[in-house]
Specification:
7 helices, 23% strand, elongated
Length: 333
């Protein structure tokens, strides 16, 4: 019984730790959706990909609709197609359904560079007993707050020595004290508040364990506009809008073409002769056009007649002509 209780406690602690580390991704994400925890994400991807491999898009949307929607929302999109979801999370191998690095690809899509911080967070928890927890309410374009706890790993040091480095314009304080380094005596924690002067430029904050087995964790900080929207997101939205406009223009052109093709057209006919004109020095322009919806299939000309002595320098006279027309789809002479 004692072993079962101990195992249950371990699973519970690991789950809490995994969620704490998943919260770190929120510092770097460029989508509005909540970051999905790894076990939940992998459960849904496994369900979706199994159905997709068995029966394609229809099976995935019908039998794994909830997983499809969960994955789509996790990527910050409300309406990804089943093919799009499959291309991101399902394996191309015939022996596997879910891609082995599906969660990593997901994290890197919504928060470029953040997966390394997530992995390091898990490793610190498992080996050093350092725990990183993000106050999600404190995550703003220009600042954030995280808690770092130390409870002394087995046979570990009584004190965890930490320092930080950051990109230009980013500064951090340990429990309100501005310093490059701090020490944690087990068991204790420290509240780290970081801010930056220019949220319009990307940056980073790097936390380093300088004693024990060491290690470091770098948190990427994306650039934001004045309205607090990630600049990468704006670029992506602008591209999406541009692509949609191109599609709308194409659809409008298709609509006009279909409308023209579906309009009734008269049967084949000859257009009335143009007005007769003399040739030679008194030559004039003559015109003849097909009705709307028809195409030219021939021209009939009448030449000859008297030139009244004007043809010798100019050649033969064109008396009159007419074009022969027919509908678009049966333009046969």
């Amino acid at each position: 019984m004692r072993s079962i209780i101990a195992f249950s406690a371990f699973v519970s602690c690991f789950s809490v730790s995994a969620q704490e580390c998943a919260n770190l991704i929120a510092l770097s994400k460029t989508v509005s959706s909540t970051v999905a925890e790894k076990s939940a994400f992998e459960k849904h991807t496994s369900n979706f990909c199994n159905e997709y491999k068995k029966g394609g898009s229809r099976a995935a949307s019908t039998n794994a609709g909830a997983s499809w929607k969960f994955i789509s929302a996790s990527f910050g999109q409300s309406s990804m197609s089943t093919e799009e979801v499959a291309s991101k999370v399902c394996s191309a191998s015939s022996g596997e359904s879910t891609s082995s690095d599906a969660y990593k690809q997901y994290v890197e899509t919504i928060a470029a560079g953040a997966y390394s911080a997530y992995e390091t967070c898990i490793r610190f928890k498992d080996t050093n007993d350092l725990r990183f927890d993000v106050d999600l309410a404190s995550v703003l374009p220009s600042e954030f707050t995280i808690s770092i706890g130390y409870s002394q790993a087995i046979q570990g040091a009584n004190t965890a020595e930490l320092s930080y480095s950051a990109s230009s314009g980013v500064t951090c304080a340990w429990n309100g004290i501005s310093s490059a380094a701090t020490k944690l005596n087990a068991p204790s924690s420290v509240l780290v508040h970081c801010s930056r002067k220019d949220q319009g430029k990307p940056g980073y904050a790097k936390f380093i364990r300088t004693n024990g087995i060491g290690g470091s964790m770098t948190i990427p900080l994306p650039a934001y506009d004045n309205n607090g929207i990630p600049i990468n997101t704006l670029a992506s939205l602008n591209k999406t809008i541009s692509d949609l406009r191109i599609q709308v223009d194409s659809l409008e052109e298709l609509k006009r073409t279909v409308s023209a093709l579906s309009s009734p057209v008269p049967a084949a006919q000859d257009v009335a002769y143009s007005a007769s004109r003399g040739g030679g020095a008194s030559a004039m322009t003559m015109s003849s056009y097909c009705p709307a919806g028809q195409v030219v299939i021939g021209v009939e000309m009448i030449v000859g007649g008297t030139c009244h002595g004007q043809c010798e320098p100019d050649g033969g006279a064109l008396h009159k002509f007419r074009v022969k027309c027919a509908p678009r789809f049966n333009a046969v002479k």
